[in-house]
């Protein structure tokens, strides 16, 4: 069977999925965990299609598909995305083909699937899966360079940067989904005074990142070779790695960031699968003069198509803008193609010491700043370390975030010959310290 | 009701619990998760008593206790320690009193409880609970000083050390219980050559740590004040934070240790509760000239009894020693009283930014080296950074661990007027790289 699921001419009988502005045309089909708004019912797994959600529990109950299809749907019908993640890419492709056919114009199950649709306007969403461990990489070389310059003007990148996919373990428990408020953290900071002080962070920032979710895991002690790395990836989300810069600069030596990050991280609720991203894969190239990756981080597939073209944006809406009814203001733009390491390299590196990855584990990409000034993926960069205020509409300025500020991250994939897809919303609003 | 559970004169009808060398007298009563060896049955929660385990599922079924007792036992009977952890210290004390009475000489339920005993020689153990997030602190000031000297002879302790309970997020998935082999990790290292290389770590080390498990959690955004911190702690285990020093020194800047740690961490299977540790609590004192903790890390209770007296040991048995039938060799001794921060301070600091702690979360204490030379809690310290070989019986030496080496961590609490208790075994054997 030829995979027609990316065919840009495909149209869905869900009319809103054919609108060219939607993030969720029939070529996307991302997974999320939802329930009716203000209900206390169990979370269900669904697939976004236009402005609707296809409830996979209902599909499992109503659809006259064969046993093989029912086996794929079983964990999803039980609300357990992790178990489906563990089933791997072949299962994922089979279900994708089935859903794509069922949602197409002229489908012979349209009447049945219509009964499984829930409008997105009537649902609430949560994190799509159980995230056992969260690891945050540092694969944004422009971010690492710009931030490095603030500390070491002559030697911004450390000697390991171009060899090692640098990362640190993050905090899983405080990962929330788009829409949750993020409370300004209290913390210990050190200014010019002799003693440190404890109080609300004064340098609260966002970080523009992409998140990758692990599908199939590996056994403790058994690395995953680069040639197999892609098969262990499930899909991508957007990630805002909120950061308290003043807490970070005082706490981070010698063991890295801790409380400056663990007060909250926001992800987008819909997981865009590796299959949906196929048309947007791009060659992974090293700039001239940069070292080639060591063999354990190299493969022909990675060279040919390791990178992914995702246009990224950050938007800010202040309290005052909201009160004036003003739309969020575009702060910066970047592209995930600029990441210094691919998600397959992150995964192979992570497992290279035998560390066991598990279905639902999350990797952050590190801040994805663009190469140009003004393309910083954080306020730290845009405000030159808090020294140059960023101008906003209506005469407001920001060096760091104030209470009431809302931050959006957006991601969209576009390529000639392909239907554009998007990631949906990744938004959070800063609320005051306790 | 007076709490008689610590009374050193208490004796159990389980005869082995009255042996003064046992780690598990009736005054201890630690929780673990076990099943019959080589069975594939569900894991059960049990309490260690002498050389036996009291199977709490069997107790729940057989014992004629009232509804209140049955409610305490319910989650334990289902094999879920986390739900019991979430019930807090009052529930824990009630169950402790009940089990202590039932296991005492002269108990009126002896006959029933006898039917719930399983010999420890016939069981296997696993990690006692689901560990959602693992955080490793750096509260061993002698370790931090000695290791700091290797890098910065004139300025070993960084300026933040005496103010901030330094920590980093660790890897949860690779935490294993005593007895599991630990595979020597592959990794990227940088020697004198121009290019880094990839291969088996040549500087594999252990770290002597104590682990604290969280009981009741907190809501995201709501810090836990110091005055309430103790009530959120469940109990302690021993922890070996295996470390690959050559991978660590190349990867750790600027975001801290990652693959040098995440290949495996070993904990002891029995959780010694905060109640069992009562007789071994000691005042928390700052050395003269050291700053007092900031108010958010200070409380009268913490000053009076924040520290815990646990005698700690590391023992090593090489392959050759094992073949000669030689007992493990004592490498070092320390005491958890020397920790620069108490477990309550670690917890209050961790939640101070609003980070949500969850039942079963694990904190490592950082390497607990003693103040004297020769009391290093790692080979890195004992071998002066790999320069001075440590002498072993039979003419062997070590600068770092070789394949086949087994490392034990032991912990024991002794105090006048109290029955001594111990932590059981925390052992791991190094196996070769893949």
* β-strand number of chain A: 27
Question: How much helicity do the residues of chain A have?
Answer: 10-25%
Query: What do the pLDDT scores of chain A average to?
Result: 96
- Rounded radius of gyration of chain A (Å): 22 Å
| Quaternary class | homodimer
Distance between the termini of chain A: 57 Å
Which chains make the largest contact? A-B, 66 and 66 residues
In terms of DSSP E residues, the strand content of chain A is 25-35%
What does this structure look like?
The structure is a homodimer of 434-residue chains. The first copy, chain A, has twelve helices and 27 strands. With 434 residues, chain A is an alpha+beta fold. Chain A has helices at 56-62, 67-77, 81-85, 88-103, 110-114, 141-151, 226-229, 245-251, 300-305, 319-323, 343-351, 379-382, and strands at 31-36, 44-49, 52-55, 117-119, 123-126, 134-137, 167-169, 175-177, 181-183, 186-189, 197-200, 204-205, 208-214, 233-240, 243-244, 265-267, 272-273, 281-282, 307-308, 311-317, 329-335, 362-364, 390-391, 397-398, 406-413, 421-422, 426-431. The longest helix of chain A has 16 residues, at 88-103. The mean pLDDT of chain A is 96. Chain A is 21% helix and 25% strand. In chain A, strands 6, 7, 8, 13, 14, 16, 17 and 22 form an eight-stranded mixed β-sheet that branches. In chain A, strands 9, 20, 21, 25, 26 and 27 form a six-stranded mixed β-sheet that branches. The radius of gyration of chain A is 22 Å and the shape is globular. At the A-B interface, strand 7, strand 10 and helix 8 of A face strand 7, strand 10 and helix 8 of B.
């Amino acid at each position: 069977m030829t995979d027609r699921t990316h065919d840009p001419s495909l149209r869905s009988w869900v009319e809103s999925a054919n609108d060219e502005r939607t993030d969720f045309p029939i070529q996307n089909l991302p997974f999320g965990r939802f329930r009716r708004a203000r209900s206390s019912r169990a979370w269900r797994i669904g697939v976004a299609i236009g402005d609707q959600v296809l409830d996979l529990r209902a599909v499992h109950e109503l659809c006259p598909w064969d046993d093989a299809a029912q086996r794929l749907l079983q964990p999803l019908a039980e609300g357990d995305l992790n178990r489906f993640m563990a089933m791997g890419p072949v299962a994922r492709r089979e279900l994708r083909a089935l859903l794509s056919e069922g949602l197409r114009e002229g489908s012979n199950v349209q009447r049945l699937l219509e009964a499984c649709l829930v409008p997105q306007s009537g649902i609430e969403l949560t994190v799509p899966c159980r995230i056992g461990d969260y690891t945050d990489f540092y694969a944004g070389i422009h971010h690492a360079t710009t931030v490095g310059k603030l500390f070491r003007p002559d030697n911004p990148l450390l000697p390991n940067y171009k060899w090692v996919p640098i990362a640190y373990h993050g905090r899983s428990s405080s990962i929330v989904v788009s829409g949750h408020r993020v409370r300004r953290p209290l913390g210990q900071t050190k200014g010019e005074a002799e003693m440190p002080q404890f109080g609300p962070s004064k340098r609260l920032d966002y970080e523009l990142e992409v998140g990758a979710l692990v599908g199939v895991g590996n056994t403790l002690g058994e690395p995953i070779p680069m040639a197999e790395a892609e098969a262990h990836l499930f899909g991508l989300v957007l990630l805002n790695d909120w950061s308290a810069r003043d807490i970070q600069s005082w706490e981070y030596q010698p063991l890295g960031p801790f409380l400056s990050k663990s007060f909250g991280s926001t992800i987008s609720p819909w997981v865009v699968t590796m299959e949906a991203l196929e048309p947007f894969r791009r060659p992974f190239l090293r700039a001239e003069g940069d070292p080639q990756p060591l063999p354990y981080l190299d493969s022909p597939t990675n060279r040919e198509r390791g990178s992914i073209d995702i246009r990224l944006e950050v938007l800010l809406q202040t309290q005052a803008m909201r009160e004036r009814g003003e739309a969020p203001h575009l702060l910066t733009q970047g592209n995930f193609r600029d990441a210094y390491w691919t998600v397959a390299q992150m995964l192979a590196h992570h497992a290279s010491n035998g560390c066991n990855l598990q279905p639902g584990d999350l990797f952050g990409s590190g801040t994805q700043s663009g190469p140009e000034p003004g393309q910083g993926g954080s306020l730290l960069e845009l405000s030159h370390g808090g020294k140059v205020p960023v101008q906003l509409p209506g005469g407001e300025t920001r060096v760091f975030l104030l209470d009431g500020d809302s931050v959006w991250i957006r991601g969209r994939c576009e390529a000639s010959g392909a239907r554009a897809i998007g990631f949906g919303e990744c938004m959070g609003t800063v609320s005051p310290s306790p």
